[in-house]
């Protein structure tokens, strides 16, 4: 049940028994433009569309699951459009928007048969990198279902995160694989049943929210006798701490990312960092902890992230660096 989408345009038609061919299609659609040519065939149980399509500047945010206040919509969801015909479409698109995510380029072949849409070899460019994906969606008389399997290279989400939270947190390219699938009669049911996994490598880059070098120098100074957590606030913000590489993974079951972790390794051997946490995709509730070891592997700076993902609560703890303080309970990252 998608929201109404504005569309207008012109096309040249040629009618014949059992089919209508069209060319010079020029259509304004969902904030962008579609062009192409093809044939609409009849004479079967369902009409069949064969088409070459080019699109630019299309906003497909209306395809995304919708939230109502603090939860996903429980209204019945039917992808009935997928059951109204069969299709074979060769697609080329530029600047396609899914909410805040922009695909600079997208191409592939879409095949729709009896309510099942398959796109086995989609390729695209986004966030400075590339992606190839196999996409499946079921609708029509079938309960809505989707499956997404992708491989991505050199994708940097820094700008996307910064647009939402004011700081991109990590500025580095990611490469890896993503599997995600869901099924249900409503957006809430789909999100409650999400399953998937993510594995990725992190290229050399920088953490952009904490000046660990400045903090380490300050707490090791002879004149420091105060509260390290208070001092930590002075070094939190738009700073860069370069790292050599990283690894990350996440596992999702029944709408909950049960395990998400990222490890960062620094070239000088003086710093280590690790993120661990969980995220409920239904309530968008996060519970995560980031531990950074500024100059040894015994005393961490801790950042607790809890609450709603839209506006999480942050709590910093650098008490391990208070004079005569014992280190808080934190497991050091594995040795490299």
Polypeptide structure, described:
- The strands form 3 sheets. The protein has a 17-stranded mixed β-sheet. A 3-stranded antiparallel β-sheet has the order 12-15-16, with no helix packed on it. A two-stranded antiparallel ribbon has the order 5-6.
- Strand 18 and strand 19 (272-280) form a beta hairpin.
- Helices cover 9% and strands 53% of the residues.
- Mean pLDDT is 91; it is low at 332-336.
- The N and C termini lie far apart (50 Å).
- The chain is mainly beta and 336 residues long.
Q: Could you give the count of β-strands?
A: 22
The topology string of helices and strands comes to EEEEEEEEEEEHEEHEEHHEEEEEEE
Helix segment count? Answer: 4
Binned, the helix content reads: under 10%
Low-confidence stretches: 332-336
Distance between the termini: 50 Å
Strand fraction band?
A: over 45%
* Class by alpha and beta content: mainly beta
Shape: elongated
Largest sheet: 17 strands, mixed
What is the averaged pLDDT score?
A: 91
| Radius of gyration, in angstroms, nearest whole number | 25 Å
Layout of helices and strands, plus pairs?
Blueprint: E1 7-16, E2 19-29, E3 32-41, E4 48-56, E5 67-68, E6 71-72, E7 86-98, E8 101-113, E9 116-126, E10 129-138, E11 145-155, H1 158-165, E12 170-171, E13 174-183, H2 187-192, E14 195-202, E15 205-207, H3 212-219, H4 228-234, E16 241-243, E17 245-253, E18 256-265, E19 272-280, E20 285-293, E21 301-308, E22 313-317
Parallel strand pairs: 4-7
Antiparallel strand pairs: 1-2, 2-3, 3-4, 5-6, 7-8, 8-9, 9-10, 10-11, 11-13, 12-15, 13-14, 14-17, 15-16, 17-18, 18-19, 19-20, 20-21, 21-22
